[in-house]
Amino acid sequence: MPLMYLMIVIKEVSFTLADIGGRIRDLRIARGESQTRFASRIGVSRPTVKAIEKGEPTVQVGHWMAACWALNCLGEVRESFKDAIPLLDL
Predict the structure, then answer these.
(1) Which residues contact 44 (CB under 8 A, 6 or more apart)?
(2) pLDDT > 90? residue 83
(3) What is the three-class DSSP state of 25?
(4) Which pLDDT value is given to residue 84?
(5) b/e burial code for range 25-37 (CB count within 10 A of at least 16 → b)
(6) What pTM did the predictor assign?
(7) Which among 42, 64, 40 has a CA at the least distance from the CA of 51?
(8) How confident is the model at residue 88, as a pLDDT?
(9) pLDDT given for residue 3 in this prediction
(10) What is the DSSP string of the chain?
């Protein structure tokens, strides 16, 4: 895989994770829930919630999904993959 392509993909992933993390943060705040309380509900530490909300790619995907489930947006995530075409198939 060419280095330039890899850099573009990584940037796109970073931007997407930051967007999703921001949405998780907004939904949590709209519920009036602290990071500490939210972390307790999904079984992670407060620093993990902070990392999710910042869009850090090192957070386990299961933690991302637990956050989406707790905020009732897991269906949106599932739906977004329904008609996806893998880039390698293009």
Answers:
(1) 63, 66
(2) no
(3) helix
(4) 77
(5) bebbeeeebebee
(6) 0.80
(7) 64
(8) 64
(9) 55
(10) --HHHHHHHHHHHHHHHHHHHHHHHHHHHHTT--HHHHHHHHTS-HHHHHHHHHT-TTS-HHHHHHHHHHTT-HHHHHHHTTT---GGG-
Two tokens, residue 32: 């009036």
Q: Tell me the two tokens of residue 39.
A: 């972390």
Tokens standing for residue 42: 């999904």
The C-alpha atoms of residue 2 and residue 10 are separated, in whole angstroms, by 12
- Amino acid occupying residue 38: F
pLDDT of residue 6: 52
Whether 87 shows a pLDDT value over 90: the answer reads no
- As a whole number of Å, the CA-based R_g of the chain is 15
Residue 43 contacts residue 33 (beta carbons within 8 Å): no
